[in-house]
Hints:
heterotetramer; A: alpha/beta; Beta Polymerase, domain 2; five-stranded mixed β-sheet; two-stranded parallel ribbon; 4 helices; 25% helix; 26% strand; elongated; D: 10 helices; 67% helix
Amino acid sequence: MNLSVEELQKKFSSVIKEVKRTDYLTLICEREGFVEFMEYLKDNKGFKYLIDLCGVDYLNYPYKDWDERFEVVYHLYNFEAKELIRVKVRVPEDDCWHYSVTPLWKTANWFERECYDMFGIEFKGHPDLRRMLMPYDWKGYPLRKDYPLELDEESEWEVYKELKKRTKGK
Amino acid sequence: MSFWRKVLLLEIVDGLKLTFKKMVSAKPVTIEYYDKVRPKPYSGFRGRHALVRDDKTGDTICIGCLRCVKVCPAKCIHIETEVDKAAKRKKVVKYEIDALRCIFCGYCEEVCPVNAIVLTEWYEYVGLTRDDLYFDKEKLLQNWDEFIAQQDRPYFNPFWKPRGIPIERLPKRKREFKGV
Amino acid sequence: MGLAIEINKKQIDEDSWSEHFFINMGPQHPSTHGVLRIFLELDGETIINCDPIIGYLHRGVEKLAENLNYNQGIVLSDRLDYISSAANNVAFALAVERLMGLKVPRRARLLRTIVSEMARICNHLLWLATHALDIGAMTVFLYCFRDREWLLNIFERICGARLTHSYVRVGGVRLDFTSEIVDELYKFTEEFPSRILDYETLIDVNRIWLKRTKGIAVVPLEEAINLGLTGPCLRGSGIAYDVRKYRPYDAYDEVEFVVPTGKTGDTYDRYRVRMEELRQSNSIIRQCLDKLPETEGEPVIAEGAPELCMPEKMKEPVPKPHPKLGAIFKGEPKKWVPVGESFASIESPKGELSVYLVSDGSSKPWRWRIRTPSFVHVSAIPHMSKGHMIADLVAIIGTLDIVLGDSDR
Amino acid sequence: MEGLLWEIIKLVIAGLILMIISVLHVAYLTYAERKIVARMQQRLGPNRVGPRGLLQPIADMLKLLTKELIVPYNVDKPIFYLAPFISLVCGATSLALIPLWKTFVLSNINVGILFVLALSSLSAYGIVLSGWSSNSRYAFLGGIRSGAQVISYEIAMGISLLTVVLMAGSMNLQDIVMAQVHSVFKIYLIPQIIAFFVFMVSAVAECNRTPFDLPEAENELVAGYFVEYSGMRFALFYLAEYFGMIVMSALAVTCFLGGWAGPFEVPFIPCFWFLIKIYALLFFYIWIRATLPRYRYDQLMDLGWKILIPLSLANLFVTALIKLII
């Protein structure tokens, strides 16, 4: 463990909200000052590799003891120390945005696009935030918990509806 | 050395030699399927579904516990049961598998406590319509008859009693199972 | 039709008919390895800009998994990277095991290692086949398929399926090997190194191959890390980062192997890394097979591993204090797994495949996040292809080794 | 008058015979290619139609003849229709100039080599025009590639043939064969090995065969210039390519390998040696197709301009010098 949590907490006391040790060290952070914190981790602490960036929707999660609905989870890796940490940021539903880390990691570009596509979390500072896996004109964010597994006929994709209409005519 | 290799294109000549050698000496690996070779799948191949026919009653041995319905990831099994009042046991009225939905994971045969459902090693099956591949109970039993006619008895499918799974994890009927 | 309009509009808008040439590669194209669509802006044949568009194979695996239980999820992971599905199974099973704290028996761990290395060989053979075919070497393609067929037959013997194995299950594997399978695998490992020589004779030193691969899509180490490349693509740039060594799982801490690395990070280096990995995988399989007799008779599934059938509404009797009777047993929804989160990553043949699980204690995962290597690799195409030609783009797609089922999920 | 008529009838009959034989050759060349490549790749190749698949080319032809001729909406129609014919006619006409036997050459003209070269460069027009008229981006790129490729390889090929002309002192193909027979080594391959090498490489490039099959590179441009063609018009392109192969190997045989002459005369089979040599060269074409990867567009140009043309020029210079001294 080369990462001293105390030191980090002292330096970024306003950013780090909570420290947990589950399977990996987990830092729960605030939105403000987050990018600077990540930059510090990347440049000074050797966490050069962003393994994963993903969103989680905690709507009606039975064991939730916080208010915000979404979480953006980062997994960072340090090659030299062989150390993996998890950084989390909580995003409320009615103020659904977060800062982009694409300037730090190019790989975050698509991860953030996907997160936007699936959860509707907007990333400020992202160069090209548009839908990726779903069609451009898709309505709704599929991985949110209140999005149904099967859509009813009314709310189907417009293009598909049109297609169905056209093929039925023949 | 490498200069001459380069000028005389020796590395290309090596490649040409290899292909020529293969042309002259190597045997083709093509399997001439259907008319010359009909490969026999290995034991445990997950192919067409069948319901094991009980030799005594002539009916399926399924007890209608619905475990296969619950475990199926593709949700392609539909079972309807009713209680047979005379014999005081559950009777399976409807047992349907939508083979077009099925993903051939073999979970159903693994969880079946009485080894009633099996994915046979029969791989040559087609349907010209969707209905042809919607197997109802009769069709499933018929599949079994077609399949077992070509097999040595007793037939034993490895997924019925997976190798290496501790015996106490298995239900009672499976522990003593020897084959049909 | 809509696309043609899009292209034409772009041209009219820019009012530069004589300048750049727009071309749309895919979704149906012989060498985009699936349904990848790349929108290209060309100057002659040189790529100025490119925008990969994915999602044509999006099946919503993550959403589906939230509605299936843990054992059924394994079946979904098969269909991500269908070339090496055994490795995907392992990743998912590992995440669940870490969450539950299961101790997988040694035999099962050895079997998993064998199977994932077999999947690696399968995958690299298919990669070499298609990569060589993209560059025009047709014969290598068929030689690779010849040998891959052998492995698929072994897979069929092991688990009854050739492509979507679902061989691994939470807490172990589904079936033990038989002695015939072990014999066949021994035969394969003995024969296979000579087969690798076949491919290398045809392309390894061939001047056309060298010209097509050396200096193409050079990714320096810093950039490779920044782009998030994993697996052979990252190792080709010169770092020996391999999850099997850095965070060992299964039986990888018991076996000895070398992690091959490249120097410059061009297409040829990545090719060499993968060819070397074929040999290493072969030797890993060999070592595991040698260790198998030590564990003869062990169960292949961990104690306390969940049953295949995990009904959601199952209730467990839990004692509750009662004022008069002392305690009564009340049915509570069963906790299949502990509440919490877990992260597991493996070195899948294509790169680092990691699974992030959040559970709420029920039989279904709350969130199942898969970070697939292909997804990251597709995102790297624009950075790698700028300034190269169309023919190189084909080589780049080949060298990144992408499968669209993996990237679209 | 009688004589002239007789001459014309003779010419037509000879032309017909040549055409039938060469079309059959093309048909079975496709079969041979598939079979040989298959064996090199440990496959079986066609084996369903007829014994050992011998009727496969005929079945293919029938299929292509009966297929629908799809004309895309936005093509330039006259050119689109014309292009495959240009390709085929220019590819096949050269056969008339090749001396198959001492007495059998359809048109024995004095500028034989020039004529063959002219036709083979004309056949590139078919490809360029089809690429342009298809109004498809892939076809367009294929057409451009083909134009560039043919232009640059034509030069190397012409220069390497020039050395032969220099040695034989004639442009008449029949005379070249005779000059070879009377020369020291009996064939020009031995003194002109470099020219032969250059010629073969550029011939492969001229025919758009692997490793130079860029115009139709199926993995990059799907099918290149004929991506929009179907049915018989597609078959014409196919025929043209194989005719090109035959013409190029016939030219190589005539100019470098001593034409119809052989170590001894085989009775009853005229042009036995010619055919043997041509088959060997065709096998070589197929062989390298099964072995080599494909060049990139700019690397192909590099090879043409930076290696083959200087090499053939140097060779020409040395040959001329030796000729001057002797």
